[in-house]
């Protein structure tokens, strides 16, 4: 952990009301400045204790504190460094090691994830039993979306009309396997807006899950493979439709800074979130009316880590007939945070329920998110709320969930609002 970065914190407290775990528990050591104090203690020679590791593990890495900090503290760098130290020095329980080993042996690998889609979805009914075995297993069962129809994307999709740009598309691991329709919608939107879309084979995981969990060597391996895949495709701009992946890829040069050659190659890769790229490109295709009310959810790694807030709203607001509604406490994380809802399921459920309440309070027909983890997390919370209220059969409080790309795709193709998303409370 970098002592100079630690010194930047003046303990002003502006981060406190934005930190999800401090909001939940009100504990100083579960706030950003409290965790920075723990990091400073370690730099001064205090070993990583179980208590210290517990407070650092409890951080979601949502980066809301980075947005709120008036002193420019690079907490994003600090927490990544701290997590790497915890992974190296802290001895976890056998059960923790088993769960973490299973998650990182499964989720970054598309073929393994594909084989587990149906079993994970079917295991939802076994959640009470799995909770008793291990809460992380129960969380995995609860979060799993219904099996999606596979989508095979060609290596190149040509622009519809005059070509305005050529871009590569990151298909992702979780996005590609659990939400393949989002990738398909993304390709259609880009093509309709005049882009040749290159979809390199053998992309694999971008390394986001590993990077945000302190698994440095693994993150570097995935980063190098992703960079090489897009270099072979000869595209200078890579469009990403998953917030966590975009954040990770924009950080590749920092991740690989100890390897100057790779850092230079990483810096040459221009990474843009889908909404960011489309706003920069400007509209060309006609938007058809889409009469639907939408609650837009700010994914933390899009709003805080990448600073992309206005662009998705600008794209949605430009659709005729669409009613865009804001969600209260939009800066507070939904509790997904990559693997957080698997490793810290109790805290994640509290935050998920809090977010779902705020979403349903908007009265919107459709929840729009730019991250697959957020979509699964809020959908699971909505299911819990409906089951608890006994309203599932009546259909009360239902809200459909979709990605920004799907909404744009529906408008550009003149599709009806009913074609969008799945009902969060029922899995339909």
TrEMBL record:
GO molecular function: 4 iron, 4 sulfur cluster binding; glycolate dehydrogenase activity; metal ion binding
Source taxon at top rank: Bacteria
Enzyme class: oxidoreductase
Entry keyword set: 4Fe-4S, Electron transport, Iron, Iron-sulfur, Metal-binding, Repeat, Transport
Cofactor mode of binding and number, as noted: Binds 2 [4Fe-4S] clusters.
Record Pfam families: CCG, Fer4_8
Cofactors (names): [4Fe-4S] cluster
Catalytic activity from the UniProt record: glycolate + A = glyoxylate + AH2; (R)-lactate + A = pyruvate + AH2
EC number: 1.1.99.14
Domain 4Fe-4S ferredoxin-type: 1-29, 50-73
InterPro entries: 4Fe4S_Fe-S-bd, 4Fe4S_Fe_S_CS, Cys_rich_dom, Glc_ox_4Fe-4S, Helical_ferredxn
Role description: Component of a complex that catalyzes the oxidation of glycolate to glyoxylate.
Protein name, entry field: Glycolate oxidase iron-sulfur subunit
Phylogenetic placement of the source organism: Bacteria, Bacillati, Actinomycetota, Actinomycetes, Streptosporangiales
